[in-house]
Design a protein that fits this description.
The protein is α+β, with helices and mostly antiparallel strands. The protein is about 25% helix and about 20% strand.
Amino acid sequence: MSSTFGTLFRVTTFGESHGKAVGAIVDGCPANLELTEADIQPQLTRRRPGQSALTTPRDEADAVTILSGTENGKTLGTPIGLSVNNKDQRPGDYGEMDVVPRPSHADYTYLMKYGNKASSGGGRSSARETIGRVAAGAIAEKWLKSRFGGLSIVAYVSSVNTIECPPMEAEGLTRELVDATPVRCPDADTAAKMIAAIEEARDAKDSLGGTVTCICRGLPAGLGEPVFDKLEAKLAHAMLSIPATKGFEIGSGFAGTHLRGSQHNDAFVQKGDRLGTTTNYSGGVQGGISNGEPVVFRIAIKPVATIGLAQETVDLDGKAVTLEAKGRHDPCVLPRAVPIVEAMAALVLADAALQQEYRIR
C-alpha cells in the first residue's frame, strides 16, 4: 500500500494536513520495549511548526497520544496506534486551490491520479503527513538503542542554497550540537550565514532549498539485503519518500566519480576486536550490506513550493491567472526536515536489524 513502509517493522501513516488528526500505526515492534509518549514527543517537538522565526507560524503543539499496543509502559507486540490532533487549522487559506493548481505542488497530480483531492493544505502531500513517520521513527530508534547500545542517528543541515557547511566528523556530533542554532547547522559561522539567507528569502515571500546530511553510528556489520533490497537502496527509498526531496547520495556520492579507484578504495585495518576501514568513501555500506563504519548519506531538498510571491500560472481551464498563496509556509523547510530524516533512517535500520535477527536464528 502507498501509505505503508517497511517489511517486518511496518508503519502506516494516516491523516490530511487540515483534517482532524494525523498519525501512524506501527506493526512489528517487538514486545516488552519500555515506551510512553515521553519517548516519542521530543522528536515531534523538533519537527513541529512555529518553533522559530525561520519556520511556518502555524502553531501546533503536536502532542502525541498512544492509542494502543502498550500496557503498563511496555509494548505488547501488537500494533501501536499513534495520534496527533490538528488544532491550528485554516482551510480557508487554500480557497484558490479549487481552481488553480499551485506551481510545483501536488495539487494537479493528485487530481489527475484520483479525480479528487483534499480541498486544503495539500492533504496527504503536505509535510504534516510526516508527523506519523517521526512518531514511528522514535519508537524504531528506541528499539535500536536497546539492541545496539552505542547507536546514534544524527542529521544536520549541511547546506542552504549555495551556503555549504564544512564536513562534520562523526565522532562528537550530537543532536544537542545540531540544535544549538535554529537552522540546525552545527557550525556556528555557517549557521549565521544560513539564517541571514533564510530571513532574506522569507521577507521577499520566497523560499530556499538545500541539503541534509545524516550520520548513523554504532551499527554492526551485516545489515541489509543483497541485490534488490540493499541497505542504501532502502535508505534512498525512505529519503526520497519525504516531501520535497529531489536527490540522495551515500558516502562519496557523485563527488566520488572524480576520484580514481586507487584513491576511492576503503582499505581494511584492525579496529579493536573488528575489521574497519581507513577511509569511508563507501558510506558504511558495501555490497548493499553495512560494514560497521558510520552510515553517511545526504539528501537534497528543493525550495518550498508554496510561496507568497506572486506567480504567473494558469487555472484548471488553462486561463492565465496571478497566484499569491495565502497559507502559512516555511521559507526553508530544512531545519524541520532534520528529525524526519532521522526517523526514516531509524525505520530502515530497525527493519534491517529485525530481518537479520530472523535470518541468523
